[in-house]
Amino acid sequence: MTSNLVAAPRRRAFTTTPPRSATAITNPRKGEDGIEWIINITPRASHRLKAISERDQNPDLALRVSVESGGCHGFQYLMSLTSASEADASEDTIFRDEGVEGFKPTVVMDEPSLELLKGSSIDYTMELIGSQFKVTGIPGAKSSCGCGTSFDIAA
Q1: Are 75 and 68 in contact (CB under 8 A)?
Q2: Burial class (CB in 10 A: 0-12, 13-18, 19+), 42
Q3: By Cβ atoms counted within 10 A, which residue in 36, 56, 114, 139 is the most buried?
Q4: 56 burial type by CB count under 10 A (0-12 exposed, 13-18 middle, 19+ buried)
Q5: What is the pTM of this model?
Q6: What is the side-by-side order of every strand in the sheet holding 92-96?
Q7: Superfamily of domain 20-153
Q8: What are the residue ranges spanned by the domains of the chain?
């Protein structure tokens, strides 16, 4: 007896390109240990910022990330689009990634927000309920809510 079974096509595992460390170009901050605070920007976030910049014809586009008290776990992060030239040179740290296709994505954070989010990644996610920029991998977070915008810091 012969079998007419055809091998099913191999499925590829979902993989992502690892985030790259962005360079602080304005107001680099360091912790008490002397280590510079960094953030990472994923390629997905870089590509999305590039697309928005092109759509809006704004080469100075930046993503502002800030943290405030609130949310269901103590802190929540907020994001908005701004121009890098509107950042406060004395208060904000401006991060720039090496870029994609000639575009260098820029993220702006104030010092208190950076202190809570240092070492994390800025990503862009596409889900059934919508797409959004998101902060992932917050090193000091001990818990977060289901929507992913609220987190609690280990004491």
Answers
A1: yes
A2: buried
A3: 114
A4: exposed
A5: 0.78
A6: 23-26, 92-96, 106-110, 61-69, 75-83, 150-153, 141-144
A7: HesB-like domain (2.60.300.12)
A8: 20-153
Under DSSP, the state recorded for 85 is: G
Give the C-alpha separation, 10 to 13, whole Å: 9
Per-residue pLDDT of the chain (155 residues; tens, 9 = 90+): 555 544 444 444 344 556 678 888 888 999 899 999 999 999 999 999 999 999 999 999 999 999 887 655 567 888 999 999 999 988 999 999 887 778 889 999 999 999 888 999 999 988 777 788 888 877 766 555 555 555 556 55
Please, what is the Cα angle at 26 between 61 and 63, to 5 degrees?
Answer: 25
Q: What angle do CA 26, 28, 34 make, to 5 degrees?
A: 170
